[in-house]
Design a protein that fits this description.
The complex is a heterotrimer of chains A (about 130), B (about 300) and C (about 575). Chain B has about 300 residues and is an alpha/beta fold. In chain B, about 30% of the residues lie in helices and about 30% in strands. In chain C, helix 18 crosses helix 21. The chains are: A mainly alpha (about 130), B alpha/beta (about 300), C mainly alpha (about 575).
């Protein structure tokens, strides 16, 4: 699992990890059942505080992306998220706000944003289904 | 792994109201900070802000002229043995006995700490690629930092204090040192305090950040909170301005003509309100890096 | 056009300004020494007897010697090189766009002029009252000392091997002494040769300095020499066979102290003793009595001029070198503790104990070396000395030899006492305190008693008064010592600089040893048929053993460690 952490980026480090893991899962580079590196190993590899990695993993577990098991490490979850629909939309509202704020500052209209979203979704389809 | 919360963990370092004068100059002015067990504190500030002075107080090298310093609940001046036996220290200027060989220095240090782990020391020696038969004065700067760090880590201290661990070192050595520090942090219950000018290191590794400026604490909080409290924004004016606008709550204002970049301390709404007051429009916003916050607070114009 | 300002902008002017700027405080010390010299001159003028005059002469001469040595160090233009930890030419100047000849010759000329002027001031204003200098004699001795000064500079700048340096320096010292003596005796075999030899010495000093700097500029001694690398690796392999761990933290600290400072005093004492031995040997050769033992005058002069000074050398050196022993790392720029000592989990009492133990070991070794040197000195005259020794004690020569053992022990204790006093002051980390203390110890504690005894011997009135008040003075000193020690101990325990148990050990040890020394002194007084002197000997026994210094040392270290 290769992640890239950028301190210059606006987002907190744990969030960057969460986002990148979610991206990898969605793009099919991390399949359900795959092992995710233990906290210590990932912290040393990325040279960041293990607490940050732990926080990222907890967040991922909370959102149902990974499962943490005592003694067996962390693996990517098989089942899709079990969160209620309301909770899912609440989670999506935040990145949506960021996207819309940026669009507003750049003077990009809503229709163009929707077109962009369709394009990006198409690009993200897993390799096998193309 | 739990996140240490102030209520559950005891304070390993408790500094309250510490002041220190050297002649007429105030090196530290009413500094208070608490470090709980298991956390990593990054101490940042310009040269001469008082970081090394603060660290010297923690080791008992300086007596507190006003206020109190407690490490593990003990006063480092009155009980040096109790405090220093559990602390590992790497000083900024390394300050090693140049006439000793590497193995002699390790043997000498080992005699003072019953918890010295020989296997771990040998492992570090190999990992740092140090030749035990060389005299310390013939080692390069990076190697001296490594042997200093080795003799501070080998007895697995509960508290690790590092004063500019990466200063003057090439990126390869810096990586080795950072990895060694993170391995320490991953062990339960070990606390790390380090001061550094390399702020991206501080952001990566530190849970908490304390920023000193002219001997005062100007920032104190969790790393992401500290960043979240500031906004780096671009303000656009209708007309080009001859000189920098004065924005209430801004730490630094730079730019030219009709677009000015500000580093603002406060929330998004406060920024919009302040901008509206001087007739500007916010066109871009992002979270600044610790580097930008430090530079802005150190030299910027504004409050 | 301001010529003055233009001068300061030249390299010469800059170097001169640097010598002045760096040593402003040191020139104050020089002025103080000169003032002391004048004071002794005044005492001499007002004094009456000739013997007292000899004492004032000794005092003034010692002032001159210390001042001169101090000036050599200040104007020698050397700095401690951080990398190799040795005295050498300031490296930063080697990168300046100045020719090597100018870099070498300018400080030598400037330093030479300063030391020469100081020498002439001292001889004309102070020493003239006791020694008659003819103009040619003055020129001669000034030239000799200039040559020696230049050789010191040349060796310090260009010779990076510390042991080799010392050896060459001693050899050059002997050569210079020979050259000086040559002119004094005007031995016919050498007449006319002394000036050319001196010129050769002067020129060779300049050449060695210039050559050394040239090689340093080319980077000849940048990396450690192959010999030192080989030596380090050899000691490392040899150390692998021995026990790997120290028995305790105190043992480790003692090891550090011994490795760092342990051999300093024995080496310097041994070097000076070697000088004495060589000079005595040459003295006999040159005065033409070589091979003729049994001359009582020769034996007497041997004792007075060589054996007694050799015995006095550890005492003087210990008083002077004690501030160096007090530091943990000689080449550390400030008096502060180096970090790798200050951060060790060892109490101040423990650190002091390791240092004091090292001081005792070093005193013992120094006195052993000195005793061996004295033995070498008296060996040529052993026949007549043994017969004389038989007259002194009723037990004959064997008794005399066994009687030497307590004398040696006394020497060890006195050396240790000087060291401890200086260490206590030196641990404060403030240079002026340790320098003042070391000079005070040298003059008051070491020279003072001899001066008193000498004056009492010659001046009958003074002797009467002294004998009348001696008991009171000794009791007052003892009371002051005990009071100071108790105060220091109490403060130390309160500030956690020393444990109550350690205080008990120190005080108890002092009492027991004091009783032992007092008892032995009384026994000796009985033996030499002077039982009334017993009480003074007893009190002296208690006074000589250090207690206040032991009490003050942990406090001084605590004051330094926690600023």
């Amino acid at each position: 699992m290769q992640l890239r952490i950028s301190v210059q980026d606006g987002a907190p480090i744990y969030q960057q990890i969460v986002e990148q893991v979610k991206y990898l899962v969605a793009a099919g580079r991390l399949k359900p059942g795959d092992d995710v590196p233990p906290i210590r190993v990932l912290a040393e590899q990325l040279r960041i505080n293990p607490n940050t990695v732990a926080r990222a993993y907890l967040e991922l577990e909370r959102e149902g992306i990974v499962i943490m098991r005592q003694g067996f490490g962390t693996t990517v979850a098989h089942v899709k998220t079990l969160l209620p629909r309301r909770e899912k939309l609440r989670i999506l509202a935040e990145p949506a706000d960021v996207l819309l704020t940026n669009a507003r500052h750049l003077n990009v209209g809503l229709e163009e944003v929707i077109t962009l979203l369709r394009e990006r979704d198409a690009a993200m389809q897993p390799e096998s289904s193309k | 792994m739990k996140f240490p919360s102030p209520s559950s963990a005891e304070a390993v370092i408790a500094v309250s109201g510490l002041s220190r004068h050297f002649g007429a100059k105030a090196a530290l002015n009413d500094v208070s900070m608490f470090v709980s067990r298991g956390s990593v504190l990054g101490l940042v500030g310009e040269n001469g802000a008082g970081k090394t002075t603060l660290i010297k107080h923690l080791l008992g090298s300086l007596k507190a002229q006003a206020g109190s310093v407690r490490v593990f609940g003990l006063d480092p001046v009155l009980d040096p043995v109790g405090v220093l036996g559990r602390v590992g220290y790497l000083s900024e200027r390394r300050d090693l006995p140049g006439w000793m060989r590497v193995d002699e220095f390790m043997r000498y240090t080992q005699a003072f700490y019953p918890g010295w782990d020989e296997h771990y020391a040998a492992q570090l020696l190999e990992q740092f690629q140090l030749d035990p038969a060389q005299k310390i004065k013939t080692l390069s700067q990076g190697q001296q930092a490594k042997i200093g760090l080795l003799t501070a880590l080998a007895y697995r201290p509960e508290l690790l204090i590092l004063d500019e661990p990466s200063s003057g070192l090439d990126p390869v050595v810096r990586r080795d040192i950072l990895e060694a520090i993170i391995r320490i942090v991953a062990e339960e219950g070990r606390t790390v305090l380090f001061s550094s000018h390399l702020l991206d290191e501080v952001e990566r590794v530190a849970d908490h950040v304390v920023m000193l400026q002219h001997g005062r604490v100007v920032l104190n909080g969790r790393t992401e909170d500290v960043r979240g409290e500031h906004i780096s924004a671009v303000l656009a004016f209708a007309e080009p301005l001859a000189k920098a606008p004065v924005l209430a709550g801004a730490h630094a204002v730079t730019g030219f003509g009709s677009e000015w970049r500000v580093l603002f301390g406060g929330s998004h709404l406060e920024l919009e309100a302040a901008a509206a007051l001087i007739g500007a429009r916010v066109v871009e916003e992002r979270t600044p890096t610790l580097d930008e916050i430090l530079v802005a607070r150190a030299g910027g114009k504004g409050s | 056009m301001n010529v003055g300002r233009l001068f300061w902008r030249t390299p010469t002017g800059a170097m001169l300004w640097e010598i002045w700027g760096r040593n402003k405080a040191n020139f104050l010390w020089q002025a103080a020494a000169l003032a002391a010299g004048f004071f002794f001159v005044g005492c001499n003028e007002h004094g009456a007897s000739r013997d007292a005059s000899a004492n004032w002469a000794a005092a003034a001469f010692s002032c001159f010697l210390l001042a001169y040595l101090h000036l050599l160090v200040c104007c020698g233009y050397f700095e401690v090189d951080a990398r190799t930890m040795q005295l050498s030419y300031p490296r930063r100047l080697l990168f300046k766009p100045v020719s090597t000849a100018r870099l070498a010759l300018m400080p030598m000329f400037l330093g030479g002029i300063i030391t020469l002027s100081s020498f002439l001031i001292w001889t004309e204003l102070v020493l003239r009252h006791w020694v008659n200098f003819t103009p040619s004699g003055l020129i001669w001795i000034s030239a000799v000392q200039l040559s020696f000064f230049w050789w010191i500079q040349a060796l310090a700048w260009s010779f990076p091997f510390p042991m080799g340096r010392l050896f060459v320096l001693i050899v050059m010292g002997i050569i210079h002494f020979l050259v000086w003596h040559m002119a004094q005796t005007r031995a016919d075999a050498w007449s006319g040769w002394h000036w050319p030899i001196l010129f050769a010495l002067l020129l060779s000093a300049l050449s060695v300095a210039w050559l050394g700097l040239k090689l340093m500029r080319r980077g000849k001694w940048e990396s450690p020499s192959r010999i030192s690398l080989f030596w380090t690796r050899w000691t490392y392999t040899a150390a692998q066979g021995r026990r790997q761990q120290f028995r305790s933290a105190l043992a480790a600290q003692f090891w550090l102290e011994w490795r760092r400072q342990g051999l300093l005093l024995p080496a310097v004492s041994g070097g000076v003793a070697c000088l004495f031995i060589a000079v005595a040997f040459l003295f006999r050769k040159i005065s033409g009595t070589a091979g003729q033992s049994g001359d009582p005058e020769m034996a007497a002069s041997l004792i007075t001029f060589f054996v007694l000074p050799t015995l006095a050398v550890p005492l003087i050196l210990s008083a002077l070198l004690a501030p160096l022993m007090a530091s943990f790392d000689r080449f550390h720029s400030t008096g502060e503790l180096p970090v790798y000592i200050a951060v060790r989990p060892m109490s101040n009492g423990g650190l002091v104990l390791a240092k004091l133990a090292m001081a005792l070991a070093t005193s013992a070794l120094t006195c052993f070396v000195t005793a061996a040197a004295c033995l070498c000195l008296v060996l040529p005259e052993k026949g007549i000395l043994f017969s004389k020794a038989g007259l002194v004690t009723p037990f004959g020569p064997v008794g005399f030899m066994t009687g030497c053992v307590p004398v040696l022990l006394l020497l060890v204790i006195w050396t240790w006492k000087n060291l401890v006093a200086g260490i206590g002051a030196g641990l404060t980390g403030r240079t002026w305190i340790s320098v003042a203390f070391s000079l005070g110890t040298l003059y008051v504690v070491n020279f003072g008693p001899f001066l008193l005894v000498d004056t009492a011997r010659t001046n009958v009135n003074f002797r009467e008064v002294l004998l009348h008040w001696l008991t009171t003075i000794l009791i007052a000193c003892l009371a002051a010592k005990i009071t100071l020690s108790i105060t220091a101990f109490v403060l130390g325990v309160r500030r956690n600089a020393i444990t109550a148990r350690a205080v008990g050990w120190m005080a108890g040890g002092w009492l027991v040893c004091g009783l032992f020394v007092a008892g032995f002194a009384g026994h000796v007084c009985n033996e030499i048929h002077k039982p009334d002197v017993w009480i003074w000997a007893g009190l002296g026994g208690f006074l000589i053993l250090p207690l206040t210094d032991l009490a003050i040392a942990p406090l001084a270290l605590a004051w330094n460690r926690h600023r």
